[in-house]
Amino acid sequence: MIKTIQGGVSKDIRGQIRFVNDFDMSDVKRFYIIKNRDNELIRGWRAHKIEQRWFYVLSGSFSIDLVKIDNWDSASRDLPVDNIVISAADLSVLHVPPGYGTAFRANELDSELLVYADYGIEHAVNDDYTYPLDYFTKRKS
Fold first, then answer.
1. Which segments within the chain are labelled E, that is strand?
2. What is the pLDDT of residues 107-140, one digit of tens each?
3. Can you tell me the mean pLDDT for 20-37?
4. What pTM did the predictor assign?
5. How far apart are CA 40 and CA 28, in angstroms?
6. Whose CA is closest to 85, among 117, 110, 60, 118?
7. Cα-based angle 133, 66, 127 (whole degrees, multiple of 5)
8. pLDDT at residue 88 is higher than 70
């Protein structure tokens, strides 16, 4: 199940600290930061049968489309697509479990998305399913 892990911010005269203390990172093996060249580009569809991802917005905001894959050999084109908007102001981590495809777009210029993965990069070639951007189009109402 897709879930949000809420964080917070602590401020004092020295500045601030953003945190997500309830994010258990014991499964994390690597991370990367994505910064799209503009806010028109859509990255996706990329799905993972085994790997899970956690998303944290460092700056700006992102619109993330999510689809639960039904058949890894031939996914149905009419699967319902969820959309979640996450921003740096939310102070939260979005957890996407195995079995989902994602496509995302920055809503603002210079937005940055921190992504955590639970497998090393050497595993990526074994669990990387890609689809054309127009493959899944059925939006949930």
1. 3-6, 8-12, 15-19, 30-34, 42-48, 53-59, 61-68, 80-87, 92-96, 100-106, 112-117, 129-130, 138-139
2. 999 999 999 999 999 998 899 999 999 999 887 7
3. 97
4. 0.93
5. 30
6. 60
7. 80
8. yes
Q: Which residue has the tokens 């944290």?
A: 56
Architecture field, domain 32-139: Sandwich (2.60)
Residue 132 tokens, joined = 């054309």
Measure the CA–CA gap between 140 and 90, rounded to whole angstroms: 23
Structure-block tokens of residue 110: 């210079």
Residues 45-74: tens digit of each pLDDT: 999 999 999 999 999 999 999 999 999 999
Q: What are phi and psi of 125, to 5 degrees?
A: -65, -20
Predicted pLDDT of residue 138:
80
Q: What are the residue ranges spanned by the domains of the chain?
A: 32-139
Quote the longest CA-to-CA distance of the chain. Answer: 56
Structure tokens at 9: 């911010």
Per the document, the length of the chain is 141
Query: Could you give the CA distance from residue 64 to residue 127 in angstroms, rounded to a whole number?
Result: 20
Res 108: pLDDT: 96
The two structure tokens encoding residue 56: 């944290």
